[in-house]
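Running this now, will post back.
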Amino acid sequence: MGHLWIEVEISDLERKHSEKVKGLIDTGATLTVLPKNLADKIGIKATEYVEVESGGGRIKLKKGNAFIKMKGKEEITPVLVSEIIDKVLVGVVILESLGFSVDPTTGTLKPAPLLLYSLVWAEVNNMEKLIVEKPERVSWEYDDGADVLDISFGKPQKALSIDLGSGVIVRYLEKSNEIVGFTVIGLKSILRPAK
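Update: finished.
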C-alpha cells in the first residue's frame, strides 16, 4: 500500500481561521501533527507540552486542540505542533472519532464503527442522571501529588480500560460493556490550561 493523502480542513476553536491542506494518513500516529507554521497561521493555542515517542526517540511537543474536517465530517480533536515535521500527519484518534479506518487492500478510507466511543459518550451524557438518581453508587478519590482523579460506579472490580485521550481513561466490563469508572490524569492542567 502506498501513501494515503486526504484533503483536511483545520480550524481554530473560535473558527476565525481555517486552512484546507493535504494530510498524510499515519496509522502509526495517535494524534494529528501540525507543522508549527501552519498551527501559528491558524491560531492553534498550545495548552501543554507532552512527551511523545517518535522514530528518533522521545521528544516534547506542544499540544492544543483544533477542529478537523474530513470527507464532510468534523470533530474537535487534540493536535500536536511540531517544528520538525513539515506536513500534516493525520493520526488514528481523529480517524476513529470521525468513523473512518484505512482499508489496506485498496489504500483508501472506509467507514468504520465507533466501537466503544459511542457507548462511552452515551454513558457520559447519562452520567448526571446516574449521579442524581443513585449517588450511593458513585465514589471518587483524588491524589493531589499525582494529580489523578478516579471516579468509580459501584464496587471496585476488574475491568478493561480505554484511553480516550487528553488524560481521560474509561473503565468498562467486557461482557456487558457497562462503564464502571473513569480516571482523569492531569486534572489541574485540564481545568487550568497553560497560557
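Confidence is low (pLDDT under 50) at residues 116-135. More later if anyone needs it.
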